Each structure stands twice: as C-alpha cells, then as structure tokens.
Amino acid sequence: MRFEVLTIFPNIIKAYLSEGILKRAIERGVFEVDIINIRDFTTDKHRQVDDYPYGGGAGMVMKPEPIFRAMDHLKRDGKKRYVLLLSPSGRVFNQALAEEYAERFECLTLISGRYEGVDERVKTIVDDEVSIGDYVLTGGELPALVIIDAVARLLPGTVGDMMSVSEESFTSGILEYPQYTRPAEFRGLKVPEVLLSGNHEEIRRWRRKEALRKTLNRRPDLLEKIKLSDEDLRLIQEIREEENGPDQSSRRDISEGDT
Ligand code: SAM
C-alpha cells in the first residue's frame, strides 16, 4: 500500500515515520509513504501557499493552485488513489474506516491543511473529508499521521503478531481487556490470579468479561452496536450483580433485542 501526504511541513511526517514499528515496516516494504511538499508546486518567487480570504475575516486560506498542481503531478502515474482532505468538518475517523481503507485501497492520498483551511474548490478533487475528532488542530499533519498509523498497522507484516491487532479495542466492537506483564506483584498490586493459572479457557472467559466490564462502564454506546452472544449476556449479568448486588430487576437489561 502507498500513502501520499500533501503538506507544507514534510519534516513533521518524516520525523514520525523515522522511528519504531512504522519505520521498520517501511524498510521491509510493507507500505510506502510519499511526502509531497505543496510549496514545490508554487510558481511565484515567494513560494506562497496561502492568501487572504475573499469576503474578509481572520487568518489566511490555502490557495487552490499549488494543491491542484501537486495532485496533477501525482495523477500522471495513472494509478488509482483515494484522496482524503483532512478537515475538522469531515466525517469522524474510526477503526471501521481504518479497516475499510486498509482493505479497499492501494493508495491513500492525504491533503493536510494549515491556516484557516483550504480553498473550498479543493473539495472538487477529493473523495472524502475526514476529521480525527471534534477539536481543531493547527494543521492536518497529525491527522494524516493518525490515519496512516491506524491503517498501516492493519496491513499484514506491519505488526509482528496479527492476533494482537485482532483482539484490540474497537476491532471486536468493544474495548480491550486489561493487560499485565511481569512482575506478578508490584508495590502490593497483584496481577489477577486467573492470568497466572495457565487455564486458557478461564483466561479467555476472564478477558471477555473484563472487556465487557470496561465497555459497559466507559462506552456503553458500543454495546448497542454489536451482537452479544449468550455468554456475553451471562457475563454482563454477572458484572451487574458484582457491581450493584443481585437485585437487578429495576435495571434495563441489555438483551439481544436491544442490539
Ligand atoms: N478553520 C477551520 C475550521 O474551523 O474548520 C480549521 C482549520 S485548522 C486550524 C487547519 C487545518 O488543520 C485544517 O485545514 C485541517 O487540515 C487540519 N485539522 C485541524 N483539526 C483537524 C481535525 N480535527 N481533523 C482533521 N484535520 C484537522
């Protein structure tokens, strides 16, 4: 897979990709990242990428011409690409979108804005607008990296053990179970006994229950979106009894009818 990032700050992208798992995956050829400096596609001697907004108002807007020229340059290879404009007004990125991009596209092109954003006409050459959350950053470089990171780690070969990816938060529709490593006891804090037992079935059940507990407490909205198994429903009942006592008659049950 190839990612292309259009930016006026290429070093931000380079810096992040020059460490850790993503660096090694690039070296192994699992995916590649082309960083395109939008400033290279200006034609004036000041290499200006922004200008005042028509109609007045605060801040500057990114000019359309350098971005269009950069895209024309990329499209000369005739290859298929899916073009995303990073924008706080876009649809909100999540794990399901990361999975879709990893499965569907050979090449993902990410246009990073700066200043007050990009000239509206840029939207005519993009396939979608994507936001990484309901807050405003100074530029689209971090959002581009967030998307590259989330998509790239789903590609076979990026993360050593694909099981670790498939068991993570959101992948199965709920949050991940708590993780522990050695030592078994640290400053009086003990690792749950079951994890030391070697009983794989007990460990699986405990992890599922704790994942459900975390999701129930922090993100109950996620439980509304997935199909819960009979075991899940039993585990949820157990969790409620543990946390609120056995009398649950007044509480609304999450049952299969709700999912
Ligand atoms: N004036 C714009 C608005 O109100 O929507 C905000 C522009 S922001 C300061 C500059 C650039 O940062 C945007 O063009 C976009 O590329 C990027 N950006 C900022 N926040 C973002 C977010 N939550 N998701 C994706 N991109 C974002």
Give an overview in words:
The protein has 259 residues and is of the alpha/beta class. It has 2 domains: 2-162, Alpha/beta knot (3-Layer(aba) Sandwich); 185-258, tRNA(m1g37)methyltransferase, domain 2 (Trp Operon Repressor, Chain A). It contains 10 helices and 9 strands. The protein has helices at 10-17, 20-27, 64-75, 95-104, 141-152, 162-166, 193-196, 200-218, 220-223, 230-244, and strands at residues 2-7, 32-37, 50-51, 61-62, 82-92, 107-111, 128-131, 185-186, 189-190. It has a 5-stranded parallel sheet, with helices on one face. It binds S-adenosylmethionine.
Main sheet: strand order: 2-1-6-5-7
The total count of strands amounts to 9
Bound molecules: S-adenosylmethionine
Classify the secondary structure makeup into a structural class: alpha/beta
Second rung of CATH, namely the architecture of the largest domain: 3-Layer(aba) Sandwich
- N-C termini distance: 35 Å
- What is the highest CATH level, the class of the largest domain? Alpha Beta
Largest sheet: 5 strands, parallel
Unreliable stretches: none
**Cα gyration radius (Å):** 23 Å
The CATH topology of the largest domain is what? Alpha/beta knot
How many domain regions? 2
Note the total helix count: 10
Mean pLDDT: 94
Features:
single chain, 259 residues, alpha/beta, Alpha/beta knot, Trp Operon Repressor, Chain A, 2 domains, five-stranded parallel sheet, two-stranded antiparallel sheet, 10 helices, 9 strands, elongated, binds S-adenosylmethionine
